[in-house]
Amino acid sequence: MKPIFLTQFLIEEQRAMGKITPDLRLLLEVVTRACKRISIAVGKGALGGVLGDAGTGNIQGEAQKKLDVISNDILLEANEWGGHLAALASEEMDHPHPIPEQYPKGGYLLLFDPLDGSSNIDVNVSVGTIFSVLRKPEGSSESTEADFLQAGTQQVAAGYCVYGPSTTLVLTIGNGVHQFTLDRELGSFVLTQRDMKIPVDTKEFSINMSNERFWEAPVKRYIDECVAGKDGPRGKDFNMRWVASMVADVHRIITRGGVFMYPLDSKTKDKGGKLRLMYEANPMSFIIEQAGGAATTGRERILDIAPNKLHQRVPVIMGSKNEVDLVTSYHA
Ligand code: AHM
Ligand code: MG
Fold this sequence. Notes:
Radius of gyration: 19 Å
Structural class: alpha+beta
Oligomer: single chain
Bound molecules: 2,5-anhydro-1,6-di-O-phosphono-D-mannitol, magnesium ion
Number of strands: 17
Helix content: 25-40%
CATH architecture of the largest domain: 2-Layer Sandwich
Number of helices: 8
Number of domains: 2
Strand content: 15-25%
């Protein structure tokens, strides 16, 4: 079969579905080209001198890895000049990044977690990039932080790349979820799965069990019942997986089902949760829902949350629909 490259896929979507404007297509091409550069940097590992700490911290008080900073710079540099963006925001930057004066401005806002799972960089385990695209609100001339504070339902596109044994791109523009694999010889993303669907049922959960004593009762109940296996109320044995890279854990779930949880716990309660709404929870929830799954905080649908700040954190429960519905019902 003739390979379908990302460019062809996007052009055909633009023509047939009217789903993509030329500017959005350019944006997606530019972001994914930046991901290729990040993939190369990640792949060089110790030989590229890219491992280890940067010696700096981000606004969330987390130590930055060299590759966090490199990936952030690659995404900024790639996206500044094209004329498709009004501004950018990153998990690694305190404030939104305006488009430099010398370049034209466009109608989209780009948000990203440049390198998710960065605790895994130095141990050669999968990491990734997550991104989300919003429209700039009508009427405002200069972009402000308030422009970004839109509910996840307003996203026009979202995607992630996993830098694993192969580099895969998973993308939604609001009509299903499609997977592309990087052909390293050609340097191009090739469509390898159209319309991914998450099985509604699962026997696999993904949570950091070391936090068990900090969880709330509904999550503890759900996991206890899974762990009880065949002899418990669920009547089946469950398996557990935790990569500690959200991109890798969610990618497994989109591929073969499962439920991913970073729930509210007493350690992160003051901050609202562990994962970031705008850079992690919203784009992943959009993708998960487009693949037939569900995503909640336990108390509400993630995509419905009206954000109150750029670096807001939220509890996350996402994946196979029936399981997410069950955990959510325990919160009721
Ligand atoms: P990061 O964006 O700084 O890498 O943090 C987010 C990561 C997620 O990818 C992952 O699910 C989680 O943090 C792992 O947390 P923990 O180390 O508590 O298991
Ligand atoms: Mg992250």
